[in-house]
UniProtKB/TrEMBL annotation:
Positions of the Helix-turn-helix type domain: 8-38
Highest taxon of the lineage: Bacteria
Organism (species): Pontibacter qinzhouensis
Any single biological process term in GO: regulation of DNA-templated transcription
Record's protein name: Winged helix-turn-helix transcriptional regulator
Lineage of origin: Bacteria, Pseudomonadati, Bacteroidota, Cytophagia, Cytophagales
Entries under InterPro entries matching the protein: ArsR-like_HTH, HTH_11, WH-like_DNA-bd_sf, WH_DNA-bd_sf
Gene3D superfamilies: Winged helix-like DNA-binding domain superfamily/Winged helix DNA-binding domain (1.10.10.10)
Name of one Pfam family that matches: HTH_11
Amino acid sequence: MLVMLITQAITPNALPEQFEVSRQAVSKHIRLLKECGVVEQQKADREICYRSKSDTMKETDKWLEQFRQHWDVRFNQLDQVLINLKSKKDEN
């Protein structure tokens, strides 16, 4: 849903059709995204559209980067452990 909102403004009626979920479920997700400041509501003629707020997404990405770096290191360590285990297994 968030990916769709990043690429285009979309009405609340169009979202349930894309995900085969109820309008209530979409409203709940949209409300949460709005509360987090990730999505904004816009009026287009007589319809309401939702779209992502790119500045908030950039801020979120920047915050997540610290965790990405941490997990990259951890996964690289795990890769090395698995390689070592496999080579020990192959030696036996």
